C-alpha cells in the first residue's frame, strides 16, 4: 500500500490506517492462520508505504477483513492509496523529480509508477499548475485506457497519455519565445517490457512459460527503447532503466551496450546513498548467454553462424578491462526477492552529460532548468573515449540551418494552431489501432461561452482561460477540461505527430437547469481543487456538522443546516456553489485539514455533487463509521436511482458512455492480470466523450488489436 503524498489528507489517512485498521488486525486469525501486522517499508520516505502478507483471495473473501478491504478499495478509487508491488515503487523515487521537470514515461501502463510521478509533480498542494508535466506513453491501445483510468484518480492538469511504439516515439516541439525548439525531457522513466522472471513468487505463469528464449527475443527491443529514451533526454537529465527480471541479458547487457555506444555521453549515477534501508546487490560484470536447448556461450565469437540471429554481440559482457571498469556497472541495483520479501527487480540510473554521438548537431534546449547538485556533479569517467560535448556555437548553427525547414512545416499547421484545434494524426502518415479519438479544441480568447462562467463565479483575472479545452468541434460543448500552460504548448505544436488518448482535468459540466440562473455550467468535483484558488464568488463556508449532513443525505432541506449556513445561502442565487470547510485549531478532535466540495443550491435544499467513494473517504476522515452503513448505502443508492431524472439534469449527460468505459476498464484489468479493485462509481471513469459506437465495436474487437511489443513474447507485458 502506498499513501499518495500530495493528498492533503495523507496524514489523516496514515493515522487512520495505523490507529484503526492495522490495530483491528492484531491477534486476528483467518482460516486458522494468524494475520501478521502490516509493516512499513523501511526504505520508503515518511512511512508512506506498507507491506502486508494477506493474499488477494483472503482479503476479498474473509468476513473479518471485509471492513479493511472496503477501505482499501474505496481509498484506491479516490486516488488516496495505491496498491502496488513494493519494488516497482523504486524507479520513480530514484528519478529525483521536482515540480518543474518535464517527464516522459516510455512504457507506462498499467500506471502505478506514472501515478507516483504525478504525485511528485504536485508536491506543493498550494500550486494548482506545476511547471512540469508527465507524458505517459504505451504501445498497447487497450492498456492506454487502463493508464488513463489510473491517472484520472489523481485529478491532475499536468498529465497526457499518448499511444506510440516507445522505440520510435516521435520528437516533439514546443514554442519558446516565438521559436520552435525540440522538447527534451528532464526525467525519463524507461520501465521496459521484460520476461518477468523476477515476479515468479506471485506469477505462476512464469514457472510454466519461462525459457531463455524470452530474454533473447526482448533484448533488442529493450535496447532500442533505452536508446530512444537517452536521445530525448536533456543534458544533465536522469533516465531510470528498470525491469522486473534478473537476467543480465535484459539488464547489464542493455546498459553496457548503451554506455559503449554513447562514447562518454552517458554515465551511470552512483545511488548507493539514496533510499537507505533498501537492501541491494551491485550490478554484475560477467555472465554467459544460453540458448533454449541448453547451450552456453561466453563470447560472441563462440556463437555458430546459424545461431547469430538469435544471439547478438550486444548480449555479451565487455571484454576490454579498462572499458568495463569505466562503465561502473556495479552501480546498477539488483533487488533480490529473499532479502526484503519483495519481487526481483533491476534498476540503473543514467545521467546524460552531452548529446549522443549520432546526434552531435542536435539543437539544445535553450531554457535551462535548475538542476540538482547530485545530477550536475558527474565525473568524467569515460573521458578517455575521446568524446567531446557539442559546443553552443555548433548547436546554434544547427538551429539556424533548420529554421527554414521548420518554417515550411509550420506554415501547414499554423491555421490549425490559430483555431486551437489539436486533432488526431492524419491516417496516411500513421496506421494506429484502437478508438478514433475526438480532437482537443482550446477555447478561443473571445469565446462567448466563457463570459457567463467568469461573471457567475467571479473568476480571478489571473485565471488561465486559454488553457480550457473541449473534445468537440461542432455542436454544444458539454464538458470543459483544463490543462497546464506547458501541456497546452505541447498539444498545439504536435497535433500531427502524436496520438493523444487523453489529457486535462474536467472542471465544468453543462447543466441545462443552470442557464436560467445565469450560468449553463456547473462545477465538477474532479477539478475543484484546481479551480478553487481562482473562484471569488458562490463560496459557502460550512462547519463540520454541515459537511456530515451533505455527505450522508442525498438532498437535505436547508432547515437541517446550521443557522450561519442558512444565512449565507439566503442571499445567494440558485445554482452551482462551492462548499468549503476550514479546520478549527481550537477543536483538535475535529478534522484538521480543509475540504472543498461542489454543491448545488436549490429553492429549499442544498446538496453536494461528490462521487460515492470520495464521500466515504471524507466521512472516514471525520471519524464516521461508514462500514456499518453498508446496507444503508445500498438503500441510498436505490433512492438515488429513483431520483435519477432530477440528477441527470444536474450531472453530465454522457454518464452512460462513462459507465461503458468503466466496464471496459474492468474487462481490460482482468485480461491483463492486474488486480481489479475498481468498482464502477459515478464520475470516476475515463473522461472520453461521444464514444458509444467505438466502445460497442471495441467489445467485439477487443482481442483483435495486437501490439508489436506483445508479439515478441507471451510474457513481455509482465509489469509491476
Describe it:
This protein is of the alpha+beta class and 720 residues long. Among the domains are: 1-83, no CATH class; 538-628, no CATH class. Helix content is 33%, strand content 16%. It contains 24 helices and 30 strands. Helix 3 (66-78) packs across helix 19 (612-621).
User: Tally the helices: what do you get?
Assistant: 24
Shape: globular
**Largest sheet data:** 10 strands, mixed
Q: Nearest-angstrom radius of gyration? A: 27 Å
Low-confidence stretches: 362-413, 424-433, 645-661, 669-720
Approximately how much beta-strand content do the residues carry? 15-25%
**Number of extended strands:** 30
**Nearest-integer average pLDDT:** 80
**Helical coverage, percent range:** 25-40%
* Distance from first to last alpha carbon: 13 Å
Q: Given the helix and strand composition, which structural class is it? A: alpha+beta
Topology:
Blueprint: E1 2-3, H1 10-24, E2 29-30, E3 33-34, E4 39-40, E5 50-51, H2 56-61, H3 66-78, E6 81-82, H4 90-94, E7 102-105, H5 112-121, E8 133-137, H6 141-152, E9 159-162, E10 173-176, E11 179-182, E12 185-191, H7 204-209, H8 212-231, E13 233-243, H9 252-262, E14 266-268, E15 281-282, E16 289-290, E17 296-297, H10 321-327, E18 333-335, H11 337-340, E19 345-352, H12 373-376, H13 392-419, E20 421-422, E21 440-442, H14 450-456, E22 468-470, E23 479-482, H15 485-493, E24 500-503, E25 505-510, E26 521-523, H16 528-531, E27 539-541, H17 544-552, H18 563-570, E28 575-581, E29 595-601, E30 606-608, H19 612-621, H20 630-642, H21 644-650, H22 655-672, H23 692-701, H24 708-712
Parallel strand pairs: 7-8, 7-12, 8-9, 12-13, 27-28
Antiparallel strand pairs: 1-6, 2-3, 4-5, 9-24, 10-11, 13-19, 14-19, 15-18, 16-17, 18-19, 20-21, 21-22, 22-23, 23-25, 25-26, 28-29, 29-30
Helix pairs in contact: 3-19, 6-22, 8-9
